[in-house]
Design brief:
Blueprint: H1 2-59, H2 65-75, H3 77-80
């Protein structure tokens, strides 16, 4: 009789442990999916910002510092891109321009 009780207890315990593990795995997967979604959206924001910068620099390869600042101000980073802390560029300077 004791053996039957132990087997039943083990079966019930194993079932409960499996259920707990399954719920934990499902919760983990939901959190991974949510993090992936949030990161994907944030990367899309950065990508859009970079496409705008690319457009500016392709339209005027000799963009001046003033034009750059005007563009960045017009983009309204804090309002439309709150995750972007800043956007900058460095123009290559050849020795003759120094």
């Amino acid at each position: 009789m004791l053996l039957v009780c132990l087997v039943v207890t083990f079966v019930i315990w194993r079932g409960a442990a499996d259920a707990v593990e399954q719920r934990a795995a499902e919760r983990f997967q939901r959190e991974v999916d949510q993090a992936e979604f949030v990161i994907g959206r944030r990367m899309l924001v950065f990508e859009r910002m970079l496409f705008g910068v690319r457009g500016l620099l392709e339209a005027d390869p000799h963009t001046t510092r003033e034009a750059w600042h005007k563009y960045v101000s017009a983009v309204k980073l804090p309002e439309y891109y709150p995750a972007v802390r800043g956007v900058g560029f460095i123009r290559a300077v050849v020795p003759a321009e120094k």
